[in-house]
Amino acid sequence: MNVLVKNIVRFVIILLIQVLILNKISLQWWSQPTGFPVFVPYLYPLFILLLPFETPVALVLVAGFLCGISVDAFMNTAGMHAFAMVLIAYFRINVLNAIMPKNLTEYAGQSPSVKNMGWLPFLVYVAFMIVMHHIAFFTLELWSLGNIGYLLLKILASGLTSILMILAYVLLFTNPTGYKRSQSSY
Amino acid sequence: MQGNDIMSSANLLIAGIYQQQDDVAYYFALRNMNDSLLNENIRLREQLAAYSEVDTLYDSTAAYIKPIDSTHFVKYADYTYRSAKVINKSVNAVNNYITINRGEKDGVRKNMAVVSSTGVVGRVVHTSAHFASAISVLSKKQAVSAGLKDGTVGHVTWAGYNPSELVMNDVPQQIRVNIGDSVFTTEYSFFPPNVLVGTVTKKEMNESKNLQVLYIKPATDFRRVQYVYVVENLMTEEKNNLENNMNQ
């Protein structure tokens, strides 16, 4: 499938999973008696993470902004998700350059995946970007360092579940080992 | 629709998606909804019963019904209630919103109060033709003027952490508050007066200021709220005009 169409379809799928399923999860038994922060996992940064290696930085920034502002519209957050997304979109190329052994131009036509990165580098890549996204987003949302323990707890809880969700998505909807199907789907 | 309304969940496309989802999902919460409506009916019937002083069903020989005394003055209806279905809600953010399926064409305007069958919910902030989104009282941006039974007035805010805990700061220390006391909206807020905000679950004394801090469990379960009423205050415009003219 055309790489543009593929990414647009993936964008829509990820966005719908985020707003229709993940945003509805708020565990009452977990947060009610203990005062543990109510959090939701954020799957949608995966859209930026899985863009092809050779995507120009400017295009990644625009895609990140559009993805973030769409999520913002669903959640009435007025640009906070867009900010965090543009931030990680800007640093994506640096993180990839640091992690990948070869020059990025040698991965023509490929997207970051377990297949061409290996499990550990892929996990490091996902974790780094997610943590950066969450720190930016939750700091902006809370907008005070008065209760920094709460902020860190929320970043940690949401970040761990986000990474789990992203791994689940990668295992379900892409072909991590490249077995049988060389072209990974969404 | 204007400005930031487009990038809100009142947007036709976004609210349409939420509406589709809610059409499927709301069957699973019908039991809760029935219970809350039944409780509301009981409350309203009790209020109604307060107006009829003789129970003619219990005592049909009651010879006379006390006429309404002359000091009783007629109060014109100040508020119009419109029902709306909640199609999306959140409790996990710092400012939480609900999306409802009534909009400008149904008479919903910005800054109208939103209440549920059990208590306060929030204030309308974005509107489109057929949908609106309201900021709930579980928001740092949104404070509510609230009072206790004895007339003590204060502000109820959300600390931003626990969706089942609102905070009422700066209650004078001589006011006696019991656990379980109800907190109502006052006439100073955009809400109609005497709508239940919640019940006191915990109180603390702020020793440095000699003021009490009350922790309040909200009357509305924001995770489960299904139907709400949008309240239009018919006197808002007149009141605002008067107040603005006074300042000139």
Q: In which range does the helix fraction of chain B lie?
A: 10-25%
Number of strands of chain A: 0
User: What separation lies between the terminal Cα atoms of chain A?
Assistant: 10 Å
Which fold name is given in CATH as the topology of the largest domain in chain B?
Thrombin, subunit H
Structural class of chain A: mainly alpha
The greatest inter-chain interface is formed by:
A-B, 26 and 26 residues
Biggest β-sheet strands, sense, barrel of chain B = 6 strands, antiparallel, barrel
Indicate how many domains the architecture of chain B comprises. Answer: 2
Q: What count of helical segments of chain A does DSSP give? A: 8
CA gyration radius of chain B, whole angstroms: 20 Å
What is the approximate shape of chain B?
globular
**Proportion of strand residues of chain A:** under 5%
Helical percent range of chain A?
55-70%
The total tally of domains of chain A equals: 1
Q: What is the succession of H and E elements of chain B?
A: HHEEEEEEEEEEEEH
Describe this structure in words.
The complex is a heterodimer of chains A (186) and B (248). Chain A has 186 residues and is mostly helical. Chain A has one domain (3-173). Chain A is 65% helix and 0% strand. Chain A is globular, with a radius of gyration of 17 Å. The N and C termini of chain A lie close together (10 Å). The model of chain A has no long low-confidence stretch (mean pLDDT 87). Chain B is of the alpha+beta class and 248 residues long. Chain B has two domains: 3-50 and 73-140 and 224-233, Thrombin, subunit H, CATH 2.40.10; 144-218, Rod shape-determining protein MreC, domain 2 (Thrombin, subunit H). Chain B has three helices and twelve strands; from the N terminus they run ααββββββββββββα. Chain B has helices spanning 12-25, 30-49, 236-247; strands at residues 79-89, 95-100, 113-116, 120-127, 132-139, 144-147, 153-158, 166-172, 182-185, 196-206, 211-218, 227-233. Chain B has a six-stranded antiparallel beta barrel. A six-stranded antiparallel beta barrel of chain B has the order 6-7-8-11-10-9. In chain B, β7 and β8 (166-172) form a beta hairpin. Chain B is globular and about 55 Å long. The model of chain B has no long low-confidence stretch (mean pLDDT 85). Classes of the chains: A mainly alpha (186), B alpha+beta (248).
